[in-house]
TrEMBL record:
Keyword annotations: Cell cycle, Cell division, Cytoplasm, Cytoskeleton, Microtubule, Mitosis
Gene Ontology MF, one: microtubule binding
Compartment(s) where it occurs, according to its Swiss-Prot or TrEMBL record: Cytoplasm, Cytoskeleton, Phragmoplast; Cytoplasm, Cytoskeleton, Spindle
Protein name: End binding protein 1C
Entry keyword Cell division: yes
Biased composition (Low complexity): 168-187
GO biological process, one term: thigmotropism
Top-level taxon in the UniProt lineage: Eukaryota
Length: 322
């Protein structure tokens, strides 16, 4: 039993015409578009056909027009999935919008699942009788059923033909070969085109998701670069240079790298200049201190010099020699 089907499975390459033919033959409906089943009632009855008696059909609403009523149908479907331990996720918010691609994908999954359960046949299932318990089910059956005048004409036409043929004598024209009927247009090419269209739509959907993902990432980077704490950093300027480039040009990256290298050279030069200034300042201080000491020594009297020398001698300085 297939509950989790990969996106590359053959089930997702079944055309719309085949899906519609399967729905209409299984449930005796007359749908012309897959998205007409967006209310969820058709899905519930398909599960009822695959698992008779499992779906509470009295809760299903075939007359659902608002999103609220449609969601109630999908709640019934989700309860059935839970009972059967089916892990398929139902994207209700997309299905109720009537988007063709989303409804087609989910219906493709439904067909694959129902075929795996029943083998593609529901011989003992009466869809019209089961729909009578649903809200709007009788009206749906009346709309899908062919008009009585058409059926009466179809049944009475052969009888009148036989009666006329029995009364009238055969003519020369009766032995003529029947006229060639127009051959039905081949459906193989149509199904192939439907398959290609579905595949292209799936590819487009995945590309749109990927585009939105990376756009969100770029937007996050832009917001981060606009932070006042780091907006003036050189690396932020380089990132903005790439981020806001109007044309695709390989030189943009080189220009951003050059901005970082140039800024790095300026910073190193500033550091060297500051270090040099500090060194010169220290040298000046040493020279000034030396000059002050010499000047102070020169202003002392001979008696003061002897006193200073005796103080140094008494202090036991290792610089004194005896």
């Amino acid at each position: 039993m297939a509950t989790n089907i990969g996106m590359m499975d053959g089930a997702y390459f079944v055309g719309r015409s085949e899906i519609l033919a399967w729905i209409n033959s299984t449930l005796q409906l007359n749908l012309s578009k897959v998205e007409e089943a967006c209310s969820g009632a058709v899905h519930c009855q398909l599960m009822d056909a695959a698992h008779p008696g499992m779906v509470p059909m009295h809760k299903v609403n075939f007359d659902a027009k608002s999103e609220y009523d449609m969601i109630q149908n999908y709640k019934v479907l989700q309860d059935v999935f839970n009972k059967l331990k089916i892990t398929k996720h139902i994207e209700v918010s997309k299905l109720v919008k009537g988007r063709p691609l989303d409804n087609l994908e989910f219906m493709q999954w439904m067909k694959r699942y129902c075929d795996s359960v029943s083998g593609g046949g529901h011989h003992n299932y009466n869809p019209m009788e089961r729909r009578e318990a649903c809200k709007g089910g009788k009206d749906t059956s009346k709309k899908s059923a062919p008009p009585q005048s058409t059926r009466a004409a179809a049944t009475s036409a052969p009888k009148s033909h036989h009666s006329r043929r029995g009364d009238a004598p055969p003519t020369a024209h009766s032995t003529a070969p029947p006229a060639k009927t127009a051959k039905p247009s081949p459906t193989i090419s149509v199904s192939v085109y439907d398959q290609q269209i579905t595949e292209l739509k799936l590819t487009m959907d995945s590309l749109e998701k990927e585009r939105d993902f990376y756009f969100a990432k770029l937007r996050d980077i832009e917001i981060l670069c606009q932070s006042p704490n780091i907006s003036n950093l050189p690396v932020i300027d380089a990132i903005k240079r790439i981020l806001y480039a109007a044309e695709e040009d390989a030189s943009i990256v080189e220009e951003a790298q050059a901005m970082l290298l140039n800024q790095g050279g300026v910073l190193s030069a500033d550091v060297d200049e500051e270090h040099k200034m500090k060194s010169d300042s220290q040298k000046r201080k040493s020279i000034v201190n030396l000059e002050v000491d010499v000047a102070a020594s020169a202003t002392l009297s001979p008696r003061q010099r002897v006193s200073v020398d005796s103080d140094v001698h008494c202090s036991g300085s290792p610089l004194m020699t005896y």
